[in-house]
Amino acid sequence: MLTLSKKSSLALEAVLDIAYNSRPYPVQSKDITERQGIPQRYLEQVLQKLVRAGVLKGVRGPRGGYTLAKERRRITLGDVLRVVDQISRDEGNMPTHSALGEIIIGPIREAVQLEVLRKFDELTMEDLCNQAVEAGIGRAGKNKNDFTI
Asked: What is 6-134's CATH number, 1.10.10.10, 2.70.150.10, 3.30.70.60, 3.30.70.890?
């Protein structure tokens, strides 16, 4: 069975948390850690990569934290997964050196990954936020008004 890696799932949860809870103020990483149980050390690494990739925007100051760099309807799950995939590649996946692995299995793996990413590109943070509202999941903070146009 094909599943998301732990890193991919945690990154999606973090970005969704920011998309869902960043109004009117940015979301601080410590709050994401408390709500989602994502280890702080890992979270900061992923959030900084997402900032550099243009998915998130870092805000400095006493009310600083993270916000989405674009409207949540313009950020797909595929956008987030591509950043996490780059982190995994940077950490060094074990390359295969066999002909069977490179010539036979490699293209199949790549085709499956492309198809999965295509599906994730169809889902936006807006879609997930709407699902969270429908599921009755409360937002952080006292201001629960959403003035999205």
From this structure: 1.10.10.10
